[in-house]
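This section describes the prediction task in plain terms. A model, or a person checking by hand, is given the sequence of a single protein chain and must write out its three-dimensional structure as a string of tokens. No templates, partner chains or ligands are provided. The sample shown here is typical of the held-out split.
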Amino acid sequence: MQTKKMLGADDVRKIAQAAEAEAARNKWSVVVAIVDDGGHPLWLQRLDGTAPISSYLAMEKARTAALGRRESRIYEEMINQGRAAFLSAPLQGMLEGGVPVVIDGQVVGAVGVSGVKSAEDAQIAKAGIAALLA
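The expected answer:
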């Protein structure tokens, strides 16, 4: 029998608070989504002024990162490099901004952010995860 690590409510709040702080520091209006390792929602926060579509995109980026066990940008890069067949994969968030949460080599969830440039979305997600790992 294997032991499985899981994100707890305090972990999720810590990630979310740090991600929101990173967005605020840069005056970025975004949505922050956090999911468990199976892509199930644990947190969704839409900051004031963020477009409604970002709620959907953030959750899908997080889900893609959790289920794929890698950053969502990897899928975007594969498609942009000509692997168009990957568009048929059963994922909706194949854009940069989804980052897996890895603890002791295990993916325990993911953070997805949407609302600014994709690299900035990823920056916010990584800031949230870094707070958990600190």
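For orientation: The chain has a mean pLDDT of 96.
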